[in-house]
Amino acid sequence: MNGPASHAGLDTLLADIDVARSEGLAAIAASSTTDELAQAESGLFGRKSVLGQIKQGFGSLAVELRATAGRALNEAQQELRVAHAVAADELAAAARREQMQREWLDLTETPPGPGRGHLHLVTQTTERLEDVFVGMGFTVSEGPQAETDWYNFEALNLPAAHPARSMWDTLYLDMGERTELGDGEGGEATNVVLRTHTSPVQIRVMESQPPPIYTICPGRVFRRDTADASHMPVFHQIEGLVVDRGISFTDLAGTLEEFTSAYFGKAISSRLRPSYFPFTEPSAEFDINCVICEGAGCQTCQRTGWIELGGCGMVHPNVLTNCGIDFEEWTGFAFGFGIDRLALMRHGIDDLRDMYTNDIRFLNQF
């Protein structure tokens, strides 16, 4: 049937659609929580919704009028879906903000009482050492803990037969047939190791910047050692490197003496004893007065008054050459010692393992 009655039915449906859309938008706007919005969904979408029931009345319309009614219905449904999605996002965001505000914790707040947290003794020692050397004009350099054979051994003038190259001392990583860990000779290597010292950082520094160089290299190192009172397979070192014109052994001795006084106090002094290291020439052992007896002699220093702290020496010409530095124009010195050992000496700790058992009674002492 096509006539006034059909058009009147269309007008009624269009009016009903407009009313349903308005009421739906009002219901969405009135929802103040995600739960209220969810409760309103049954009246907005689906067959049981107001618009769904209106659609069931399309059968009474003439065929040529159904397209107009359907278009109006789809537009109303789309408008409601967009409004619903926007409201859902806003209410969910508001709920999250409310939850975060309710559960918020000030992680920077210092808790009272004995449970107060603090830096580990090794970290405290590292930062104290860095402060001393930065105050002396050094920079701080870091590098990867997994190194190629070139950076860990070859560039440091360590021949292939050196004992430190054996599997007994060094932890090798299985990285496949070929591995690339940087430039330089041997950049493609079959042997990748967990660094046995922080000396590879010195090589990387000399490769990456021209002299003059004044830097320290703190970090974690690894060796195949059995844990005991004075050894751990994972420990920490700090090494220093100076490369400049006119650098002599006297500069090395003076730097170490200045460090000793700044770190241990004026009552402690240092001395150098001849030694051998492949990467320095000449080389020396670095001793300080026993911090327990201040040089008078005790059981800790075996009545000698001295405790060995680390090694040092003038940078070997081969090492400078390997890094592209002309040893006839530039000279330098290097030194290194264990951070863990310094912590033991400074605080009078008998067993290195105590620092890593995570006994809160021990850690709270420092």
Strand order of the largest sheet: 1-7-8-12-11-10-9
Number of helices: 11
Report the mean per-residue pLDDT as an integer: 82
Strand content: 15-25%
* Quaternary: single chain
Q: Which structural class fits the helix and strand makeup?
A: alpha+beta
Structural notes for this entry:
With 366 residues, the chain is α+β, with helices and mostly antiparallel strands. The protein has eleven helices and twelve strands. The protein has helices spanning 4-30, 34-40, 50-55, 63-103, 121-135, 149-152, 199-208, 249-264, 317-322, 339-347, 360-363, and strands spanning 139-140, 146-148, 172-173, 179-180, 188-189, 192-194, 213-222, 234-244, 270-277, 280-289, 306-315, 331-338. The protein starts with a helix and ends with a helix.
Question: Topology, pairings included?
Answer:
Elements: H1 4-30, H2 34-40, H3 50-55, H4 63-103, H5 121-135, E1 139-140, E2 146-148, H6 149-152, E3 172-173, E4 179-180, E5 188-189, E6 192-194, H7 199-208, E7 213-222, E8 234-244, H8 249-264, E9 270-277, E10 280-289, E11 306-315, H9 317-322, E12 331-338, H10 339-347, H11 360-363
Parallel strand pairs: 1-7
Antiparallel strand pairs: 2-6, 3-6, 4-5, 7-8, 8-12, 9-10, 10-11, 11-12
Helix pairs in contact: 1-4, 5-10
